[in-house]
Every structure is written in C-alpha cells, then in structure tokens.
Design a protein that fits this description.
One of its GO terms (molecular function) is tRNA pseudouridine(65) synthase activity. By secondary structure, the chain is an alpha+beta fold. The protein is 21% helix and 32% strand. A hairpin with a 4-residue loop joins β7 (113-116) and β8. The longest helix is centred in the middle third of the chain and has 12 residues, at 76-87. The chain is globular.
C-alpha cells in the first residue's frame, strides 16, 4: 500500500489569488477520481473545493505517489488558459528525486515513450525529454545484493515534455530508478527501504513551477517544501533535512 496522507488536516496552500491557487500535494493523494485507483476515497479536487468553498479546476496532473506543487484554476476560462500554457511547454517544472546509484553530473534524457493511458502502453511513440542534474551523492553501510554498501543520488529533473510517468520511466531507462517507484522502479530496492527504513513512499517531489501569470503578465514562481517522509530520507541518506 502507498502512504496516504492524513486528510484531517487542511491542504497546505502555497499560493492563492483571485484566479489561481496552488497546494503542496501530499504523497498518496489522487488529484481526482480515477477508474485505475478504485481504492481511493479522497481526492485533491474535492478536498480543496470543500476547503475553499468554491469550485476548483486542476490545470495539470501529478501522479498519486508524487508530492509537491499542484496548481488549480478558479474558473473555467483560467483553466483553459493555463492548460494551454502547460501543453505548449510554457511552464517550467522542476522536480527532485532520490534514485538508485551514482548518476552523471548532468544528462539530457531524450528517449521517446509509448503513450500510456494509465493501464499500460498503447503503442504510439511520443517525444520525451528530461534534463537531469545531480545535486548530491551518498554511499551508506547497508548491503545490497553482492555489494556491502548502497549508493544513491539526489537529482534535479526538469522535463521539457509532459508524458505520463515520464520522469519515472526515464530514470528507469537509464538504470537509476526512483526509490519507491512501482512498477517502473526496482522492487529489491523498494523492499530494502521498507525493511531498513520503514519507508514506503515514492521519493519524487514536484519542487517548483514557473510561468507567466495570464492576468498580471508577471513571472510567477511557486515552490513547495518537502513532505515529511522525503525530508526524513534526506536526513537518513544525505545527512541534511533540507536544501539551501
């Protein structure tokens, strides 16, 4: 089972004006109702609607397992404008992930992905590009397989396309899967984290988005602090509780 947020607490609002609102989505919370997640009973759309007392429109998606910045419009017209910005690649998205192994200092992953409808690939290849930058590396005294230690990297990921599970699939493709990812990740690593650290969360965090506000025409940057489990693993693996 994935870690599911405790929704007895209000959603954390990162940004709000008369047109837009952004939350720090917890790990395990679906954006909206989905046929592929029939076990879920709470959704970000409904929780935020009830919290604000008005209708909200998610202008992009985050995986259920991914935490971080999630942006909503407060009207249908603003929703259409912001969705267009995302579709045109006018919104810069930055993620952080903890992955297996030592990654290169920098890398551009240009690897097309089959279109995915949430139930598996459906055959059409789509362009997919992700830029990777390694922020930290660590080696910890926990045996893995034939190795007496385990190595991990903290990476910054900047996608220039928005394919379903793009970051997860790209990191698996270069053999540095995101810790806690299923089904694209490494089941043995996921088991190690569950047994040694009682950690069952996917360590992918939507850290920041940047876009031109349609009304003010100003550059708007919204950043999300780490959720508790991501911050805990930063401490366990890298000896830090946050990044400066």
């Amino acid at each position: 089972m994935d870690l599911v947020t405790n929704t007895t607490q209000p959603l954390s609002i990162l940004y709000q004006d008369t047109e837009l609102v952004a939350i720090n989505k917890p790990h395990g919370l679906l954006v909206h109702r989905s046929m592929i997640a029939s076990d879920a009973s709470e959704f970000a759309v409904q929780l935020l609607r009830d919290q604000l007392g008005q209708r909200v429109y998610p202008v992009h998606r985050l995986d259920r397992k991914t935490a971080g910045v999630l942006l909503f419009a407060l009207s249908e017209s603003m929703n259409a404008i912001m969705q267009q910005q995302f579709m045109e690649g006018a919104v810069q998205k930055t993620y952080l992930a903890i992955v297996r192994g030592y990654t290169p200092d920098e890398l551009t992953i240009d690897y097309p992905l089959c279109k995915d409808d949430g139930n598996g690939a459906v055959g059409v290849l789509q362009e997919a590009v992700t830029h990777l930058k390694t922020l930290r590396q660590t080696e910890i005294p926990v045996a893995f397989g034939k190795h007496p230690t385990s190595r991990y990297s903290l990476v910054e990921l900047t996608p220039t396309t928005g394919r379903m599970h793009q970051l997860r699939r790209h990191m698996a493709h270069i053999l540095h899967p995101i810790i806690g990812d299923r089904p694209h990740g490494c089941n043995k690593q996921n088991k190690l984290f569950k047994e040694h650290f009682e950690m069952n969360t996917m360590l992918l965090h939507a850290q920041r988005i940047e876009f031109t506000h349609p009304v003010t025409q100003e550059t708007t940057t919204i950043a999300a602090p780490f959720q508790a489990e991501f911050r805990r693993m930063l401490g366990v693996l890298f000896g830090v509780g946050d990044l400066k």
